[in-house]
């Protein structure tokens, strides 16, 4: 999807905002993000009058929207999911997967929901990766403006089978946190996650930028925790993150660290 401000002059009113993505998707690709959302935002969804979630830019197949609904309902049984895609053929292909609580619509960054509904969650995974860094702030602002009070935007990137994932969580006021998540058995060093940084950060992984310093410290703590590898990758990760917490403003605890995650305040990693 192209940034909202790049719409050509004369573009027809009502046309979805954005451009078609590659659409690459696989079953279970977004499981780490989904589980984090259910844990971090499930209570807010469960208590909402309209527990609506949007899977924005779900791709060539509807797997991620189907799975998002199942995982959200572990925390919020009344949750609904709307999958939104800018490519009409993808929406048509997904219609056969519709059921109670799951629908698919044609649209883009304008997030066109019937009846003026505003979602408690917008998930945009692997959508902004193809855009210029300068476009990100405008897209974030536009999507956050569509959220219901207390809503959450989760935007990030993962590899093709979901082993490595980094995402930013945003509220109506803007960016809040950055989460790094990985399959621990496949990790050589934490900085391997750098290739999955979201567009707002991936070009900032250079000396002098906070995200570069964070990944440098992460690698150093990982190396210092090498003796714990004999107890398993999970114990090494937990020891590493506990050391990291002495120097960086982490927002989670060992319950999430055990899942191969760590979440840090956005303000600590925001580009300079």
Provide an overview of this structure.
The chain is an alpha/beta fold and 272 residues long. It has two domains: 1-172, 3-Layer(aba) Sandwich (Rossmann fold); 184-259, no CATH class. The protein is built from nine helices and eight strands. It has an eight-stranded mixed sheet, sandwiched between helices. A hairpin with a 2-residue loop joins β6 (164-171) and β7. α6 (210-224) packs across α7 (233-244). The longest helix has 17 residues, at 31-47. The chain is globular. Residues 7-25 have a biased composition (Low complexity).
Task: Write a brief caption for the model.
Helix content is 31%, strand content 18%. The protein has helices spanning 31-47, 63-72, 88-94, 136-145, 199-202, 210-224, 233-244, 254-257, 266-269; strands spanning 52-56, 80-85, 102-106, 121-125, 152-158, 164-171, 174-182, 261-265. Mean pLDDT is 93; it is low at 1-13.
């Amino acid at each position: 999807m192209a940034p909202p401000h790049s719409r050509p002059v004369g573009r027809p009113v009502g046309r979805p905002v954005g451009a078609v993505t590659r659409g690459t998707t696989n079953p279970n690709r977004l499981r780490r993000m989904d589980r984090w959302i259910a844990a971090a935002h499930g209570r807010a969804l469960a208590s909402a009058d309209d527990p609506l979630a949007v899977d924005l830019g779900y791709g060539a197949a509807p797997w991620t929207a189907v799975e998002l609904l199942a995982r959200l309902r572990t925390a919020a049984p009344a949750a609904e999911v709307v999958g939104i895609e800018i490519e009409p053929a993808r929406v048509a292909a997904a219609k056969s997967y519709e059921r109670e609580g799951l629908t698919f619509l044609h649209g883009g960054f304008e997030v066109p929901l019937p009846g003026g509904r505003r979602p408690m969650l917008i998930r945009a995974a692997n959508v902004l990766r193809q855009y210029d860094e300068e476009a990100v702030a405008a897209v974030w602002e536009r999507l956050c403006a569509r959220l219901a009070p207390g809503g959450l935007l989760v935007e990030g990137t993962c590899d093709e089978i979901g082993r490595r994932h980094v995402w930013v969580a945003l509220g109506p006021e803007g960016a809040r946190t950055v989460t790094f998540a990985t399959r621990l058995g496949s990790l050589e060093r934490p900085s391997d996650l750098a290739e999955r940084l979201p567009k707002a950060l991936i070009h900032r992984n250079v000396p002098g930028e906070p995200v570069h310093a964070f990944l440098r410290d992460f690698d150093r703590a990982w190396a210092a925790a090498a003796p714990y590898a004999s107890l398993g990758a999970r114990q090494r990760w937990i020891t590493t993150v506990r050391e990291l917490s002495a120097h960086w403003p982490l927002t989670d605890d060992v319950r999430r660290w055990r899942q191969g995650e760590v979440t840090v305040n956005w303000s600590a990693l925001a580009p300079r």
